[in-house]
Amino acid sequence: MTRPLEPEALTRRSHLYRTCRRAGARWVETNGFAAPAHYGDAAGEAAAAERLAIADLTALPRTGFKGWGMAGWAAGEGIALPEPNRAARQEDATLACRLSAGELLLLAETGNSPLIDRLEAAWSMDGAVCFPVPRADTSARIAVCGSAAARMMAKICGVDLRAHRFDNLAIAQTSVARLNAVVVRNDRGGTLAFDLVFDSASAVYLWDCLVDAMDEFGGRIAGLDALTRLRG
Amino acid sequence: MKIMPCPLNGPRNISEFACGGEVQDLPAPDCSREEWIDYVHLENNTAGVVREWWYHTPTAYWFIAERDTRTDEILKTYPASGAFHGGSGSDGG
Amino acid sequence: MAAERLEAPAGLLIDRARPVGFAFEGRRHRGFAGDTITSALMACGVKVISRSFKYHRPRGTLSAAGHDANSLVQVGDEPNVVADTRRIEEGMEIGAQNVFGDLGNDKGRVLDRMGRFLPVGFYYKAFYRPKGSWRRWEPVIRRLAGLGTVNTAAPHGYFDKQYLWADVVVVGGGPAGMAAALEASEAGDGIEVILVEENPCLGGSLTYARFDAEGRRAARERTALAEEVASRANIRVLTDAVANGWYTDHFIPVVRGNRMYKLRAGAVVVATGSYEQPLVFRNNDLPGVMYGSAAQRLINRYGVRPGARAVVATANADGYGAALDLIAAGMEVACVADLRPRPPGHELAAAVRDHGVPVVAGSTVTEALAGPWKDSVEAARIARITGEGTVQARQQVHDCDTIVTSIGWQPAANLIWHAGGRTPYSEATAMFEIGEVPPGLHACGSVAGCFPIDTVIEDGRRAGWLAARDAGFAGGAMPAVRNDRGAAGQNHPWPMFEHARGRDFIDFDEDLQIHDLRNAIREGYAHVELMKRFSTCGMGPSQGRHSWLNAIRLNARENGVGVNEAGMTTQRPPYTAEKIGVLAGRSFEPERMTSMHWRHAEAGARMMLAGAWYRPESYGGGEKEAMVREESRNVRENVGLIDVSTLGGLEIRGPDAAAMMERMYTWAYSKQKVGRARYTLMTDMTGVITDDGVACRFHENHYYVTATTSGVDGVYREMLFWNAQWRLQVDITNVTGAFSGVNIAGPKSRAVLQRLTDENLAADAFPYMGVRMAAVAGIPCRLLRVGFVGELGFEIHCPAHSGEALWDALMEAGRDHGIRPFGVECQRLLRLEKGHIIVSQDTDGLTNPLEADMDWALAKKRPFFIGKRSIDIQRDAVERRLVGFEVEGAAGGAVPKECHLVIRDGEITGRVTSCSYSPTLDRTIGLAYVAPDQAEAGTRFHVRVNSGRIEGRRVRITPDNLVACRVVDLPFFDPDNARQDL
Fold it and tell me: Where does residue A197 rank: exposed (0-12), middle (13-18), buried (19+ CB within 10 A)?
């Protein structure tokens, strides 16, 4: 019998692994991390996520490219570039988030993203017109999922994120609980959801703020499996 | 709470921004001592429409706002590329 | 049921099926769910709720709406609760405030008889001399004239905030507000309306006032409007919610319980109604004297009969409506005194006459006669009015226990005032009316001088339409409003009848009588702003709601000017008192933890905050100095490991990277070799040092620059600021959070690190100030051979999510070399021994590189870097120098501390910035600013270590508080740098 996976067995660890472990996480190896697959009740977590749940997605691949020539370079690499502050789904489901004229953030939906791997391999310093941003490590990523997500976010964020005012794949780069964050609306299936991408060193802080804010809505902590189920 | 219309991010609470002071040209390196001291230490403190630098902190984005200091009304905002040319640098962080 | 409790339908807000027990001053009472503290007490026959602020006079409800301080009580730990609006709860313990003994037998009431010795401004004058006497008297006075008691040990409640958004926000859920919300909700697809009401249900005046003789109209209109509002999906109603201010761009804080909503509106309708105003006569503050609207609130909302027999004084139709409600509640109305010489005919007045109530025109109540305990009304004196504020000597006396007054209204225009709107006074209506108002703000209903119910509803619809238009929703045609707004005949222009023996209160909160204000004006405090501050009129808890209209009329007359000329004082938010907890909310203070944070905790680290970062100060549970000493010994003798993840990191990349570096930093970088690090020093435009670090050149077009923990955000912002203008072909990225880092330092550091990497770490392969990219324990890292602590050492920067694994690997690899972690305190000591400065500890907001002895880090030939010109200008005028020093004499004497002053001949010439006992050197060493002529090595100077006095610029010195020091060359330790070059 193999022993269950533990985060400390791998070199890459989310700042939240202790928090998730205390909540009873069962781990799955993802992109070099042990990621919380579920907390013992994947179906219940998926059901809760329709109303309100948060999940640590730090393990999922992400990267960024930034510089004066980003748009031309990315288009040359076959990326369908959206307008600034919009995201566009790429062929392998990776989300290309345009943060400004010259900055791109790529977020994988699962543990592997062929697009991110390909771009990181393709980029070279010679003649570069844009440069990689180490988003995998600068940032943590948390999903806030469920019909009450916008109302809960209104307790910690000054941008109107309600579903009819902030449509799917819209981006707000703003302050969340006084922390700079990129908020991407990234619905799972038909369920309202936001991905928060922010300073990895503040992951524990923001997680605690979210847990506190979701209390009145009966929010729960969910694993990756719950989000996969929602996406259908 | 005042709203600042950011050229990149749209209307946002002013608490997301920091003001960088009036737009001023850097004096030539061989300017007089007095000109330099004036540039470094003196503010115009104009009563009327001024062009100011503003910084959207979450995106590290500098832009220019035209503001009437008598009414605190923001008349318009635009990217710095509208005022400074040359090279091909970007405005954002 | 208590004798004062009425049958339904009186009592709209109470639930007779749910009794609620509570205690007032220790006595048990019962009320009903929905009762306020005031209504429940009144129903039990308790009319005295508080004692007044200054004279300790008994007070009961005046407005039954919290428009006065009469109803402030203490509820448990919570002081200054408004009894008029706070609902009772089971087991609530309520106490009176500002009372010595109990409410009925307040020993402070003796002050009432001393009143003439306590004129307005008394405190300023009486305790001004001799010097210091105010300090002695203040606590006594504060105790005598006070409000509730704050329990500083009370548990902190949970408060929070939430944003809300709406196209149109309507403040006030009366007939005007409901009509406005309805109209706005119809203005276009997708429009969203929020209706904010401070009472527990919608209706406003429709919940208590009477608009027709039968008394059916109000309920009918209320039900129709409220049902319509409830049926609209796009109207959100917030009841029990107070819109507490107006801020720029229609930002409205709405307080509801322990939550503050931060409400952003596209446009705002102000339908906040008006405050009824008091009639001023002798003893007008006796419990039992109340507004018509107060009596109607008690009867119609709470089913409470205010008394048995009433005299009504009125100057408008509302007083007759109140009289009809009193009669319907089973009270006897002894007489109606109408202040108007020829009252116009009105449906309500006719109905009162039909009940056989005598009506005396042109007359007023001039005095309330008190009962034997001076805390109730026994009778009212009535006299004919002869002129402005004057009456005939011949007076009638009517026995009564209640005096009800309706003489006019003041617009509740607080939000309009906050927004900078004008409300000029109209002599025609004797009322402040809405004048110029900022865009997007619309007033309607009685706040806008509109009174007949049909007009009010039309006015509301008009305002709702206008607000929707301003929010970008163009509806159909603007609703019409009939011309007659009914403002004329609402307000009596001079409802003040001064009594020779006073006690004619204008401001109930502050116990101010007519002669108090007149005296203030005659003493020279004539301007309204001065009168307000000298007399404190309008400065009490109700902020002039019931006092300011009369006070300003009085001021105008005394000054011989019109009311508009007298002017208004400025009204600012908040509209009602708000708790500090509401303002604080659930405060958000971002914290940052490095990836190694929990390893420090497990190793017993004492953590400290550096900006938002947690950093280990020192490890182990023992005495700090001893731990630091032990950690530093281990670095010097073996090998230590410190978490430096909090260091800032910036990537400077692109063809113009070197040009960018040379404009931002003081030194030269274009000739820096790839694979080498170089010190960086940043100054601002004035030449002041703002940051330092090292620049690692990993490629011709790539510098990785470190910055200080607290400085990196500012450095990043400055670089972007300048390049927004220079537009160099360079990209600047803040990667602070992307890298975790450690510094492994000590003679054995190379041996430990070599176990984990294939990179050749030998001195000739990887020299001092070399940089490499290499794998350590399989983790891709950036290695920097730098020596902040003066030993052989390496900084290792790795991806943040691998930081903990790197820490574990190094601790494991170093175990048999005696590796142990060291903290920030130890690092500060070690770098001091090497004479390295810490920006913002050893520099301040004025330090330039010349003062800090860093001329070596300034590029001489380059024409420009930020700050160069300013430094050049200051080159001949250096006024202080940063030097290293050691304390003379044997270690163990007094140790100077940061900011202790360098004294020469009684003058300050500098200060200490860092100082510590060095166990390595067995000496006390430090850095200090001294005068330029004291900077030579070997110069002796003195530091004052104990507190002393500074008089002018002279410093008092006693021999025992001066420590002799001597300037020494830096660094203190290993001057040839043999150890770090190992």
Answer: buried
Rounded Cα–Cα distance for residues A172 and A149 (Å): 15
Q: Which residue in C731, C736, C781 has the most chain A C-beta atoms within 10 A of its own C-beta, making it the best mutation to test that interface?
A: C731
Contact C734 B60 (CB under 8 A): yes
Say if residues C926 and C911 touch (Cβ distance below 8 Å): no
Contact residues for B34 (Cβ-Cβ < 8 A; gap 6+) = none
Strand partners, C398: C380
CB-CB contact of C191 with C233 (8 Å):
no
Contact B58 A180 (CB under 8 A): yes
What is the Rg, in whole angstroms, of the alpha carbon atoms belonging to chain A?
17
Tell me the one-letter amino acid at C403.
I
Beta strands in A68-148 (DSSP E): 86-89, 95-100, 103-107, 131-133, 139-145
Q: What is the tens place of the pLDDT at every residue in C704-743? A: 999 999 999 999 999 999 999 999 999 999 999 999 999 9
Closest CA to B81 of C654, C651, C715, C726: C726
Cα B58 from Cα C173, distance rounded (Å): 39
Alpha-carbon distance C756 to nearest alpha carbon in chain A (angstroms)? 14
Q: How far is CA C92 from CA C21, C75, C795, in A?
A: 8, 7, 63
Inter-chain contact A18–C598, Cβ cutoff 8 Å? yes
pLDDT tens digit sequence for C657-671: 999 999 999 999 999
CB nearest to B89's CB, from C247, C262, C729: C729
Q: Please answer whether residues C867 and C666 qualify as being in contact, where contact means their C-beta atoms are separated by less than 8 angstroms.
A: yes
Among residues C33, C18, C1, C82, which one has the least CA distance to residue C542? C82
Query: Does the pLDDT value for residue B74 go beyond 60?
Result: yes
Q: Please report how many Cα atoms fall inside a 13 Å half-sphere around the Cα of residue A40, on the Cβ side.
A: 7
Residues of chain C contacting residue B21, judged by C-beta atoms under 8 Å apart: none
Q: What are phi and psi of C712, to 5 degrees?
A: -60, -40
Residues C770/C698, Cβ–Cβ less than 8 Å: no
Q: Which helix (H) or strand (E) holds A181?
A: strand A179-185
Cα–Cα dist A204/C458, whole Å: 55
Whether residue A91 has pLDDT greater than 90: yes
Phi (first) and psi of residue C352, to 5 degrees: -65, -45
Predicted ipTM of the assembly: 0.97
Closest CB from B1, B26, B60 relative to C716: B60
Task: Count the neighbouring beta carbons within 10 Å of the beta carbon of residue C259.
Answer: 18
pLDDT, position B81: 85
**What contacts A69, CB < 8 A, 6 or more positions away?**
A102, A128, A129, A130, B88
pLDDT at C9: 86
What would the 3-class secondary structure string for C908-944 be?
Answer: EEEEEEEEEEECCCCEEEEEEEECHHHCCCCCEEEEE
Number of H helices, E strands in chain A: 8, 13
> Which residue from C717, C727, C870 is facing B40, i.e. has the nearest CB?
C870
pLDDT given at position C437? 95
Instruction: Extract the tokens encoding C13.
Output: 């807000």
The token duo for C358 is 């005598």
pTM of the model: 0.94
Residue of B nearest to C263 (CA): B1
* Contact indicator for A101, A170 with CB cutoff of 8 Å: no
The nearest CA of chain A is from the CA of C161 a distance in Å of 6
Chain A stretch 132-171, residues whose beta carbon is closer than 8 A to a beta carbon of chain C: 133-134, 136-139, 151, 154-158, 160, 162, 164-165
How far are the Cα atoms of C132, C251, C274, C569 from residue C572, in angstroms, in the given order?
A: 34, 14, 18, 10
Interchain proximity B92–A102, CB inside 8 Å: yes
